[in-house]
Amino acid sequence: MATVDPDIKAAPEAAIMPEGTKYGTFAGVFTPTLLTILGVIMYLRTGWVVGNAGIFGGLLIILMGFGIVLATGLSMSSITTNIRIGAGGAYSIISQSLGLEVGGSVGIPLYLSQALAVTMYLFGFREGWMWVFPGHSALLVDLIAFALVFGIAYASAGLAFRVQYGILAIIVASLISVAVAAYTGSMTIPFEDVRLWGDFPGAPEDGFGGTSFWVVFAVFFPAATGIMAGANMSGELEDPRRSIPLGTLSAIGVSLVIYVLLAFWLARSAAPNDLVSNYTIMIDRAFWGPPVVAGLLGATFSSALASAVGAPRILQALGNHDILPNSAWIAQRTRSGEPRNAMLITAGIVLAALMVRDLNTIAPLITMFFLITYTMINVVVFIEQSMGLVSFRPLLRVPRFVSFAGAAGCLLAMFIINPTFGLMALGVVVVFYSLLVRRSLDTDLADVRSGLFVSVAEWAAKQVKNLSASQERAWKPNLLVPVEDADTLRGSFLLIQDIVAPKGSVNVLGLNGPDASADLPDRVEDLTVAFRKNDVFASSAIVDAQHFTPSLTASMQTLRSAFFNPNILFLPLPPTNERSDSYAHLVQAAEGQHMGVLLYAPHNRAGLGQRETVNVWINDRSPDWTVRMDIGNLDLLLLAAYKLKRNWQAHMRLLTVVETEEDAADAHDFLSTVVDLARIPEAEIVVRVDTFTQFLHRAPQADVNFFGLMRPPDFDKMRQFVDATRSSCLFIRDSGQENALA
Q1: Which H or E run includes 330?
Q2: Widest CA span of the chain, in angstroms?
Q3: Which of 108, 333, 395, 690 might form a disulfide with 695, Cβ 3.0–4.6 angstroms?
Q4: How buried is 483 (Cβ within 10 angstroms: 0-12 exposed, 13-18 middle, 19+ buried)?
């Protein structure tokens, strides 16, 4: 019989989580989710919704609210059947798809919302209690309820679940009281007299000043947002892949049926005026009121208990991945698996919020954070469905429109309920994301970000192929740098970096041949990483190359077919003429592949100098100094020099030598026009009537001199230029694909 390593089925962080009691679908997911949905709004606001909107309007509001959370529940269920979900519920789902930074930026406000929701539920419990016992102290009721909730949660999740069984029985009893009332004749209003679409008179506290459909929807919608109560327990479930979908969707379905039946019962049992003016109409119209009162108290208490159990587990999961300060302490669990440290922090937050005595001002923000979480779950599923990755093969498949509708519905609900708080919540998430990105979090969690970026790149590549061939305005320097000796690359590292930064790229090609150093692969990788650390996109490959020229030529031909293909061949000037024929062949091969050539001749003592001045030499064009869009072999010359000017903040000169004063005037006009059309600010123009050789020796000093690459290349003359200018030189040949005037 085959055996399975437990680690295969476990979540990625299972190794650092102690073993504890594991819960099944009914206890771990269905019950807490159902009890959170069947909360205070069901008892105190369902009648008000129907009274304002009428039976059809009320049912539309209920169906819209549950439609949004049903889509989210389906998305969550689908992704849960595709991953080994760890602790933290929604946080784990988002992190495993979009990375810890996105997961943490949503998980932190989700945790705070879950913790503050405990306070709100306790306030709701207190209001219900004070309705029954108006003489009791409000603060004392709050503190006793707080002690009971966290005492039960601190003892164990198992005790909390056992208490919830009792509360579930109380809520069932309250619903039975309603059902008996319906059976025994409470529905006295004939259906034909039921108001189908309401007048939206408003609420008693605002003097029935009128309201709207969307305001009523905003009041009702939080009732449907309890679907994460079970998913938050993902770390304690025996089989989260099975329990979360089954428990969550079952709870949504059961609660939807209950809300629809209650709306129909209330519409037939009381007049619209009574429904909007009496928040306790459900108690008054029930067969026996006390079970409904007990259900109201039990619903708020159970919601507080579910949040008090779930919130610390989100916090503990954040600690597992070093998202927060003192994460190691926060992540600790007892031998039975209880996150006691995280629970103490949560209790402190709830107690402090209780002392504020009024959370009405931030209550909408709490709802916003829940909605952002739901939005992100739908977005995660939509992205994975759209990418078509083979790793996305959930056991529960849902159509792509479901995740899209869920995300759109959550965003719509955010801005219907409160646009200001919606924008604030999004701002908080962005701030947390920015902070986490700067920390460069490290994790063993596998996510799909690379696949997402590849999919975007593939889409972009297809779009580019459909565009016109000329992409002069989108040109960027993408250098192919062949390397046999890593020290040579080290010597030209800063120059390459400054030519391509900030948006170009470097493709380092290690030619591992007879003359290559033994550690070439490792050193090439180190230098590639160094480029990336300096915000230059770089990649590398090692090619076994017995012969330098054929191997490099074949590599150029191969890379030319890639989407992110190099467009400039960067070569160091050989110290001797031993490779003159090979280099001439490579220059010709580069032209055939529509690649520019940049030949670097470093000065053995000056190097790159002070990186303050750049000279660009323009050949004598006499007598034709006409400026055309095709300005000859000047495009890459000017663009490369401008890149150094900008990255070095250097002074740039354009120099040329002519034979007559008349030619000098034409040359000056030509260079002035080129500088203007090429948009090179503050470039100095130097025109001399002289011989090129003589002026080369006495030209203004520069740290780097740019020359056009002569045809065919004359390496002896290039070395003479280096000696004459007493600086490093770059010899450049256009590819024909760039345009300095574009």
Answers
A1: helix 327-330
A2: 115
A3: 690
A4: buried
506 φ/ψ angles, rounded to the nearest 5 degrees: -130, 130
Q: Which of 504, 490, 508 is nearest to 570 (CA)?
A: 508
- Please state, in angstroms and as integers, the Cα–Cα distance from residue 738 to each residue in 645, 711, 712, following that order: 18, 19, 21
User: Domains (ranges, CATH) in the chain?
Assistant: 6-439 (1.20.1740.10), 468-594 (3.40.50), 602-742 (3.40.50.620)
State how far the Cα of 233 lies from the Cα of 161, in Å rounded to an integer: 11
Q: Quick count: other Cβ atoms within 10 Å of Cβ 581?
A: 11
Q: How far apart are CA 105 and CA 20, in angstroms?
A: 28
Residue at token pair 């549950």: 66
Angle at 513 between CA 511 and CA 516, to 5 degrees: 80
pLDDT tens per residue across span 168-225: 999 999 999 999 999 998 888 988 888 889 889 988 878 888 888 988 888 888 888 7
Distance, CA of 491 to CA of 506 (rounded, Å): 15
List Cβ neighbours of 474 (8 Å cut-off, separation of 6 or more).
Answer: none
Q: What is the pLDDT of residues 510-564, one digit of tens each?
A: 888 776 777 888 888 888 888 888 888 888 888 887 787 888 888 787 777 666 6
How far is residue 599 from each of residues 238, 724, 737, measured CA to CA in Å?
65, 17, 18
Question: Cα separation of 131 and 127, whole Å?
Answer: 6
CA dihedral 207, 208, 209, 211 (to 10 degrees): 140
Tell me which DSSP letter residue 164 carries.
Answer: H
Report CA-CA distances (Å) from 489 to 377, 506, 593, 615, 640: 46, 12, 23, 23, 18
CA triplet 31, 73, 345: central angle to 5 degrees?
60
**Cβ atoms 95, 107 nearer than 8 A:** yes
What is the rounded distance in angstroms from the CA atom of residue 185 to the CA atom of residue 191?
14
**Burial letters for 643-682: b for 16+ Cβ neighbours within 10 Å, e otherwise?**
bbbebbebbbbbbbbbeeeebbebbbebbeebbeebebee
3-state secondary structure at position 709: coil
Specify the amino acid at residue 124: G
- Could you identify the residue written with the tokens 């309603």? 178
Structure tokens at 262: 């209650």
